[in-house]
Each structure stands twice: as C-alpha cells, then as structure tokens.
Amino acid sequence: MIIKSRDPKDRDIAELDALLKQADAQGKRFLIERELRAMKAGIAGEEDCAYYINFYFGKSDNWCVIHDLRIEHQGSVAQIDHLLINRLFEIYVIESKNFSYEVAINDSGEFTLKSGSHSFGIPSPIEQNKRHIFLLEKFIADRGLTPSRLGIPIVPRYRSLILMSPKSVISRPDRKTFDTDMVIKADTLRTKIDHNVDKINPLQGLAIMGNMSKIKTVTEFAEALRSYHSSTAIINPSIK
C-alpha cells in the first residue's frame, strides 16, 4: 500500500535553471551545472527504485510504502528516499543511488566510482543510511509513534538497503572483512527481502506470526509518520 508517492522535483530544477541564467561567474556556473546533473541523476535513480518498490509492494496488504520522507529532529535533517514497513514492524530504510558505472568498495567500507581511467571517492551511502536510521529511530521513539501490543510499545526493527542501478558494476571486499550485503541492485530488491524471510527458522516463524500487526495498525503508523514530512526544497546554499 502506497502511503506517500515521490515528491515532484520540478521546483528544485526550475530554481537551479533560474540561478544558472543569472550566474555570470564561470566558477558559479560550473557549480550550478554540477548540481543540476547530480539532481537529475538522483531523480532518475529514485524513479527506477520507486518502480521496483511499487511493482512488488505498492498493492500489497502486508506492506506500507513511503517515498521521499524528509524529517527534522533536534536540529538535524534526514532525507529518506524510500521506506518499506511490514506487519512485523520491520522498517526498511532505502537509499537509492544512480551509479551506472563501476562502484568499488574497499576493506574499510570506502566507496570509489570509476569511469574509464578516472576514479574519485564519494561519501559512503552505507554510513549515510546509518545516520538516516539513527535519526528516524530517535524521531519515532521521542514522539511515541509506534502502537502498543498488550500495553507494551512495539519496537521497530530497522534494516538498511542501498539500491544501485541495475547497470552498475559493484566490486566488493570479502564479506568477513567488510559486510556489503545491504548494497544491492534495484532489480533484486524482492529477492533480497524474500531471502531475509527464508533465513527465519520454523520456531522463529511461529513466534513472528504471533507478533504480526493488522495492516490497519501499520497504515495508521505510516500515515502518522507521513504527517511530519517537510517538503522544503533542498538547494545547496553554496551555489546561491
């Protein structure tokens, strides 16, 4: 069930286009053009990921879907690309990246993009999503948004996923050195979530079935979370 669709980015792009027309310094034009390229690439990546999420989970009676959730808490902001919430109150926090070339992850978890003979480092999406989860978890707990079961508040379980373009090539370290299992291609999302379910043993399965919430309960929680969404446009202040 889709609780919130993706926000249109037309306003952000129009603002950047206007800034580009007004910019007279070459350096500033370069910054604005780079921001525009990054934004358009990000939009394409989010659209691809949203397609797979909506295809598999958008009409499900066991899942709630939230796209483009921006929350503010105690002076910090989390811009979350996608949330998937099921009846077990597992919350998949999903970061989408539109890297259609080689992505190398080293033993320390550092990310490098490779295009031809050029390589450059980027901030770790894994660490970025950890910060999103940290803020989201605190936000939900501080506001008491989760329902109770037998008088005890439900404690959600948070799972991180980084969705890459299906066209990307991912080089990874050994799993024992640095675990990158949460970094997957967008078209394998359903397989990844099914695999998580398959790893549950029968005894765990029986206990889990007893802890399932009604979809109405999950929907009410997701709607409450959506009500805190802030749609403030995000433009890099350094280019204004």
TrEMBL record:
It holds the Pfam family NERD. Residues 41-159 form the NERD domain. InterPro entries: NERD. This is NERD domain-containing protein.
